[in-house]
Amino acid sequence: MSAVTIFFLVISALAVFAIAAVTIGREARRLDSVAPRAVYDIDEAVEFVAARLPGESQARLTYEELRKLLKAHMGWLHAKGLQPKDVIDRRQDIIEEVVVGEETVTAYLLGQAESLRIEVLDDVDVVHVVRGHLDYFEAIGAVGPRANDTDS
User: How many beta carbons lie within 10 A of that of residue 127, not counting itself?
Assistant: First the structure.
């Protein structure tokens, strides 16, 4: 091989490396600014939450009633502006932290239980449903970390 051929091979390899590095860097920066995709599947959520309910709660709640409670919870999140319409490749524009308290959601679902025609329901069942649903959100990456009482 001549010196000119080796020179062009080295220059070509460096050019390919530079183009790849710039492209990968640009895409990494773009993906870092985009909200992660979390896919909520109601059937999967019902299974996930049902598997985590204590035996007493499982005995009192049917899958259909659990589905109604989870849908009501999602409706509450939407009403509070925590369930945006379009989230695919949406830039993260969170200005302030949002904390959803289990007590607030539990109280809301207890209030909705009558209109959802869920008659045999104990307060502790709803607490377990809310905790399981929030655990599901965390498992699919739809929420941030849990807030501690010491966080201010």
Answer: 17
